[in-house]
Amino acid sequence: MNFSKRLLNWYKVEHRDLPWRHTKNPYIIWLSEIILQQTQVKQGLPYFQKFVSRFPTVHDLADASEDEVLKLWQGLGYYSRARNLHFTAQYVSKNLNGDFPDNFKELKTLKGIGDYTAAAIASFAFEEPVAVVDGNVQRVLSRYLGIYTPINSTEGVKEFKTKAQKLLDSSNPSIYNQAIMEFGALHCKPKSPKCMFCVFQHDCTAFQQGIQDELPVKLKKTKVKKRYFNYLVLSDSEGNTIVKKRRGAGIWQGLYEFPLIESENPQEIPTSEEINEATGMPLARIEKIKIYNEEPVIHLLSHRKILSTFIEIEINGQLSDLKFSNKFEICKIKNLRQLAVPVLIQNFIESEFPIA
DNA sequence: AAGCCGGGGCC
DNA sequence: GGCCCAGGCTT
Known about the structure:
Blueprint: H1 3-14, H2 26-36, H3 41-54, H4 58-63, H5 66-73, H6 80-95, H7 104-107, H8 115-126, H9 135-145, H10 154-167, H11 173-186, H12 205-209, E1 225-235, E2 240-245, E3 256-257, E4 260-263, H13 272-279, E5 286-291, E6 297-300, E7 304-315, E8 329-332, H14 343-352
Parallel strand pairs: 1-7
Antiparallel strand pairs: 1-4, 2-3, 2-8, 5-7, 6-7
The protein binds a DNA duplex through helix 2, helix 3, helix 6, helix 8 and helix 9.
């Protein structure tokens, strides 16, 4: 029995029933694939349900504001996915009459769609015989074929792409592609792969040689760096505060946060002068300065360790009477939950301003 | 070719 | 604490 036959037999019995597997609608498939980039099914599933429900068609998504899309995306991370999702929805809605391209090459020209996602949509929705290559596929193939080339090296990416395309069952690209990824996710797992009852025992190089725990090989990632974020949480007599949308490069682009003083080292309570410099708030209006958390709140990202403090600043009179320097927006504290914010900020809001 | 970009789950 | 995840974009 060949590779595909064994794989599909396994898939028939073991696959999960997932909602995006019940459709050939390229919009729904695209939506699911963007959500699932670098994201496990368990984490992405509730977001998929929210998005399909709120945006049944690509036109609905195109007509929404970017702020609303980011708010629905909040907590899922890699927020460029949400911005690109919205951009591409508008492009497809307005320039392509709502119809997604039906082939790999054209799909790849859309923002946010790379090799993997183009192959997924082309094969799932249009049965184009192009192999998907994701982390699951790389792991399965590195073990099955005994490939030590690092999966994240330039050479490795090319090699796994070539091998994957050779193994692809061109008569059934949609099911085959889903099957090999499902096999990687459920059976040929990174740790404790289920080799003792595997349909590939007889031809898997790794199992035959007992090297499954050495594969795949991956180049080391860069070290986690520390950053110190000191947030200024202003409040006036009317229950207002000020926030700002993060712009330009860097993390959390497009999300809102409180006025931020980033420091090279752990920060003491900022002085009135520093608060004035960061926000434009006149010194005379600063009533009281207090720190919320004595110990820094630690927020871990894959490549950053953010140590943050939140500083409470009470203001004389009303914030709405003042002119702020750059692009701060006045917001009722009770309305903060309507904004798209990083999980770090969301956690703070929920703990300090619980719903009455 | 290497860095950057989140957050949750697992060991 | 390190690694993984239905990756893609930027430099």
